[in-house]
Specification:
The chain is 35% helix and 24% strand. The chain contains 4 helices and 7 strands.
């Protein structure tokens, strides 16, 4: 009988942990959306083994919890019941994670490879990037951006360089797409004969 998908994934994670402990280094592919726009699905991350004490705010930490890997950004260290813990958060997540213990920490990201090219530096969570990340937490908004990125990649352009100019361009495109979606929705409701329709409120982003 072939192993189930969860079993295969757990086996891969176990092998990654063994490789990290044996050689002090491992490469993993990013999945999920909790670190947008700093990390995108498909980015290849180089992880070096690290202890909790070696991590500082803004580091990207790999930790394991409930059989899953997480790569989130360190916010700060704290003490809980006499034990040092990490406070972490995904760049596109509105809330912080549950405190991370020393036993859960596996390592930290030291390099990011995107579309076959090594980024010159690790992506930082600037106020603009944080605002974009929070906006991308909304599924429909995220879908627009992912389609935009896919289109630009097909055109062999550098979409996701983390310069202020490219982030501003991405943000402006996303906001315009959101306005179009909101306007279209509002217009459709009027056409359907809604007796009382309030115009959509502007998006408010808390940094």
């Amino acid at each position: 009988m072939a192993p189930s998908e969860p079993t295969r994934e757990q086996h891969k994670r176990d092998l990654a942990v063994e490789a990290l402990r044996a050689s002090g280094r491992v490469r993993l592919a990013a999945r999920g959306y909790s670190m947008l726009p700093s990390l995108w699905p498909g980015d290849v991350l180089t992880i070096h083994a690290s202890t909790l004490a070696q991590l500082v705010p803004a580091d990207l930490v790999l930790y394991q919890r409930d059989g899953s890997f997480f790569v989130h950004r360190v916010v700060r260290q704290t003490q809980i019941d006499g034990q040092v813990r990490l406070i972490t958060r995904g760049d596109s997540m509105p809330h912080r994670d549950q405190p991370v213990s020393a036993q859960e920490v596996l390592g930290k990201v030291t390099a990011v490879e995107r579309d076959g090219q090594l980024l010159e530096k690790l992506p930082a969570c600037t106020p603009l990037a944080r605002a974009i990340g929070l906006a991308l937490a909304w599924g429909r908004f995220r879908g627009v951006i992912l389609r935009f990125r896919q289109h630009r990649r097909r055109a062999d352009l550098d979409v996701v360089s983390h310069s202020a100019v490219s982030l501003q361009s991405l943000f402006q495109f996303a906001l315009e797409s959101f306005r179009n979606c909101a306007t279209e929705s509002f217009t459709n409701r009027i056409r359907k004969g809604a007796s009382s329709v309030a115009p959509p409120e502007p998006v408010k982003t808390r940094l």
